[in-house]
Design goal:
Blueprint: H1 2-20, E1 38-40, E2 47-50, E3 56-63, E4 75-76, E5 84-87, E6 94-102, E7 105-108, E8 112-115, E9 124-127, E10 133-137, E11 140-144, E12 149-153, E13 159-165, E14 189-192, E15 196-204, E16 211-213, E17 220-225, E18 246-248, E19 255-259, E20 265-272, E21 278-286, E22 291-292, E23 299-307, E24 313-320
Parallel strand pairs: 1-8, 11-17
Antiparallel strand pairs: 2-5, 3-4, 3-6, 6-7, 6-8, 9-12, 10-11, 12-14, 13-15, 15-16, 15-17, 18-19, 19-22, 20-21, 20-23, 23-24
Length: about 325
């Protein structure tokens, strides 16, 4: 009988202990769709964060930073004391957590992040063959007749369907029949062989209704013609652009190496973020010399390298962890 009483007391204690435990977690419709523990927003929609049923709730947020550890304080969200929390696009680049109580138990959920990945502003990369063009500045370029210029959306991972233009459009968003629209071209690149002013309008893949216009200030004006500097075209004095430089490790958290042994050195190295902003630039970079990118925000980047003689330009992508 004594053994049974001991067992019964142990069972009751175990049940009470289980009831006293609370392990809140956060769920939401977009959480983890692309990256674990992250929510990627669509610009025009809200997102609802939820946790399990407990006695009380208090939601907190913390501003994101590239620094590790994140020393920004956790802030109480006023009035956020329900099982659910609605956040909007204004809440991107914040971490969220919820503190709960259930009986004599108090606990906090793991943090999740609301990310601005899908907000990358459109940026256009222009690829020209050395010896076939003259940059006049201000977004205007003279190009040799018979040459070509390739335009790329710098962030194709973000944007899906594109509308390409060969002059400034009359309407944004695009309207069918606009003579500036290049018919039948919807990909993330376009190769121009005739004069015009080039740019694009594109919608994000993750949020099909979220679209951005490159902006007329970022259009590139091409003037194709038989310019005096075109006389050396085809003589072998210049080399075409090569996109196959070795970039390693990729992804990387701290150091990045770029180059090929035959080049030995590069006149200039430029790293551009997802908004088109120049975030790092080095001159006279040596092959096998480490580039410290530890201070960069995790995400996708374009790295542009110019050979020591200035005749070759390389464009590669890498991921900062």
């Amino acid at each position: 009988m004594k053994t049974k009483l001991i067992f019964f007391a142990f069972l009751v204690f175990s049940i009470m202990n289980i009831k006293a435990q609370c392990n809140p977690t956060i769920t939401s419709p977009r959480l983890g769709l692309k990256y674990p523990d992250k929510i990627l927003f669509c610009e025009t929609e809200d997102e609802i964060l939820s946790t399990q049923i407990f006695g009380t709730y208090q939601w907190y947020k913390q501003a994101w930073t590239w620094q590790t550890p994140n020393n920004n304080p956790w802030e109480i969200i006023p009035g956020a004391t329900s099982q659910q929390l609605t956040i909007s696009g204004n809440d991107q680049l914040y971490y969220f957590k919820v503190a709960v109580t259930q009986g004599d138990c108090t606990a906090e959920s793991p943090a999740i992040m609301a990310d601005g990945f899908v907000y990358a502003l459109p940026a256009m990369m222009t690829t020209l063959t050395p010896g076939t063009y003259e940059d006049l500045g201000g977004g205007e370029i003279n190009v040799c007749e018979g040459a070509s210029v390739k335009f790329d959306d710098a962030f194709p991972i973000v944007y899906g369907v594109h509308t390409w233009y060969q002059c400034f459009p009359g309407n944004i968003p695009p309207v069918a029949g606009d003579p500036c629209i290049i018919s039948g071209v919807t990909g993330d690149s376009y190769t121009a062989t005739t004069s015009g002013e080039y740019g694009f309008y594109a919608c994000t893949e993750y949020c099909p209704d979220q679209c951005k216009f490159l902006g007329t200030n970022s259009f590139v004006k091409l003037n194709f013609g038989s310019w005096g500097f075109c006389e050396n075209m085809g003589t072998g004095e210049t080399k075409t652009r090569d996109n196959n430089l070795k970039v390693y490790p990729n992804p990387t958290a701290q150091f990045l190496y770029i180059g090929k042994e035959s080049d030995k050195a590069y006149k200039e190295i430029s790293i551009i973020d997802m908004t088109g902003k120049l975030v790092l630039q080095k001159r006279d970079h040596q092959y096998k010399q480490a580039i410290d990118v530890s201070h960069l925000v995790p995400g996708n980047y374009i790295i542009i390298s110019k050979s020591s003689d200035g005749k070759n330009e390389y464009k590669n992508k890498f991921i900062k962890k």
